[in-house]
Specification:
ConA-like_dom_sf, Jelly Rolls, 27% strand, Low-density Lipoprotein Receptor, alpha+beta, 3 domains, globular, LDrepeatLR_classA_rpt
């Protein structure tokens, strides 16, 4: 009996040492590589990438990919060589700085051959939204109005059809290339869903530079979620509410495990 107890004690000590060593190595790696993982000075613990992306830090939206490399790349105005054609923005939109970053569209060879293609960004799954929920994004085109923006609203747990919403854009008579903020109303959604921002381009002779920045979901927190769960955590894919102390505790308490996902 004493032998078994000693073995358990020895095993516990070994696990504690290994765990402490792993955490120390991980902390050291993150500290030494923070500049590569997250641009400049921003905090990697910020959870805002779920509802907004300024491309100065981690963004959790999924980008389309028509080739071996992503259709989109995060660049700064100081990287003009990244623009295959057209003119790069002189500053980003979110910071108004030449040191800032934005999302640049790089059309694939297949798209160039066909003269028309679709590119998209898809959000993480949202638990629901209020009637005031709106998507807002800054758009830059070196040839204004050379493409179309559409918002697709896709429920993830039902067979409900995809809902398509046009993105409001002001008509422009001038040919100046500048950042323009456009938006689309999502409205109330009473079930988990994701949104896809779809850019359909019509490539023209001489090409076009297309960039996005300041992507944000505004006033989208579901009133129903607050009413049901109050101060408790609302499981994204169900109506379950769990104590906040159970979130990110290395044990899945929500049916689909979202309490141990991106939020941690």
């Amino acid at each position: 009996m004493d032998y078994i107890r000693k073995q358990h004690m020895y095993l516990s000590i070994v696990i504690l040492i290994v765990s402490s060593t792993c955490h120390a190595l991980l902390d050291r790696f993150q500290e030494e590589n923070s500049d590569q993982m997250f641009p400049r000075h921003l905090n990697p613990d910020d959870d805002s990438p779920i509802t907004s992306c300024d491309f100065e830090s981690l963004c959790l939206w999924t980008l389309s990919n028509h080739s071996d490399q992503s259709d989109w790349s995060v660049v700064s105005p100081q990287q003009p060589e990244k623009a295959q054609v057209g003119v790069m923005p002189g500053t980003d939109h979110s910071e108004g700085s030449s040191d800032g970053h934005f999302l640049l569209l790089s059309s694939s060879s297949t798209a160039e051959a066909s003269g028309r293609s679709e590119y998209h960004l898809t959000s993480p799954v949202l638990s629901g939204s209020s009637k005031h929920c709106t998507l807002q994004v800054a758009l830059y085109e070196s040839h204004p109005a050379s493409g179309n923006l559409t918002l697709l609203i896709q429920p993830v747990l039902s067979d409900a059809p995809v809902h398509s919403v046009a993105v409001n854009r002001e008509s422009r008579d001038d040919r100046r290339a500048e950042w323009v903020v456009v938006e689309s109303v999502i409205g109330q959604v009473d079930e988990p869903f994701e949104v896809t921002l779809l850019y359909t381009s019509s490539l023209r002779e001489g090409g076009n530079t297309v960039a996005l920045d300041s992507l944000e979901l505004i006033d989208c927190e579901s009133d129903h979620q607050d009413a049901v769960c109050g101060d408790y955590y609302h499981c994204v894919h169900s109506e379950d509410c769990i104590d906040p102390s159970l979130v990110c505790n290395f044990h899945t308490d929500c049916p689909y495990g979202e309490d141990e996902g991106f939020i941690c």
